[in-house]
Amino acid sequence: MVTRLILVFFYRQVNILCYSTFMMTQQLTIHPLTLPLKKPFTIAHGTFHTREAVVVELSADGLSGFGEATAISYYGKSVATFKETLERNRTIIENSTGHHPVQFYQQLYPHLKNHPFLLCALDVAAHDLWAKRLGVPLYQALGLSIDELPISNFTLGIASIPQMVADIQALDLPIYKIKLGTKEDVEIITALRQHTPSIFRVDANCAWTVEETVANAEAFKELGVEFIEQPLAKDNWEGMKTVYEKSALPVIADESCQVAADVTLCHQHFHGINIKLMKCGGITPALQMIQQAKQLNLKVMLGCMTESSIGISAIAHLAPLLDYVDMDGAMLLAADPAVGAYLDKGRIVYGKGNGLGASLVA
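Above: the chain sequence. Below: its structure as tokens.
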């Protein structure tokens, strides 16, 4: 894994030098989307029936790169704000003189540092366009091999036990991530375990206390749970130190690790981190976070929002660097407005073509 990281960063610098003639001046097109869900999705933050999103398209030389930003109300994001911010920065975006996605990111960051979801969409679109100009899939442009890839989990939202059992029986998948944060969390996992031998991961979304986490970890270990994601409030570092020392299961940071500066804080408070491209600002900072985490012997997971195949495809191209992956977001949609990478029983299948191998459906 460390060797792969060295290759990634070396290859990126080589491409900056060798492909400096590929100017990043381009046209921006904004595509607002409504993403209907197959069924209501409930987590500790609430219940959702649809997601709003924006896909950005960067076009030049007859090619287009795509990136996605999901508008999530509990993060204070909206399509209206996305559009207004993009229009306000259109001149900067379209007239960037960066020769490489990293340079493009560096030029945009001072203007969009407070808008990581949009920074992510633009950074992913720039990577997509860059790899298409090189004539290769993005993972290849990053110097990665897809010979060994982690299997993705599928997320089950909070629901009645009979409904969750029915979902598991209908899906028959190798790994499930189960959203918890109720008074019946142990009962839920106990009941589900009776119906499948699949791997379980649990995500409390900041809903537990230290005492609940330690007790639940003990019970869940006997029930075949692999790890616990973000059990405590994101800023409860003292509590997480106790959990880290006493938990019978590994604990993975999500809300506590959103940007590169958070990775060092997670050392000896968590056993791993879950990176979200939208929260950190895209592929460029995500690669930095992965490198930092590996240097600290932290496991690395890349997670998703409820996203179309545009956003999911970006995750797929970083999969060779990961210990765990959660890229089921497009599977939750009743209708996907895009095509690209997808999951076949948890296994990643890449989209056709260069770059992300993803595009909007005409």
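Residues 9-22 have pLDDT under 50 and may be disordered.
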